Amino acid sequence: MQSNTTSITTIKQEVRLQEWTAQIEAQQASGLTIREWCKENGIKPNTYYNRLRKVREQYMEKSPT
Q1: Domain limits for position 15
Q2: Which domain of life is it from (predicted)?
Q3: Tell me: the pLDDT tens digits for 5-53?
Q4: Distance CA 26, CA 22 (A)
Q5: Alpha carbon distance 63, 65 (integer Å)
Q6: Which long-range contacts (CB under 8 A, 24 or more apart) does 23-29 make?
Q7: Rounded to an integer, what distance in angstroms lies between the CA atom of residue 14 and that of residue 28?
């Protein structure tokens, strides 16, 4: 059962990171400042920056060194 729980958790994390990546890409494509985009999308700027940091960390882990 532990293995199943671990894989579900991993899948949830991957989905969350994909959603955050999509949000970051949408903000960058919008032409709005981060503060303006966050206000329009109901996300606090601190939350956006935390998500950006986590997406960057994940990218760095997966990129070849």
Answers
A1: 2-62
A2: Bacteria
A3: 779 999 999 999 999 999 999 999 999 999 999 999 999 999 999 999 9
A4: 6
A5: 6
A6: 23/48, 23/51, 24/48, 24/51, 24/52, 24/55
A7: 21
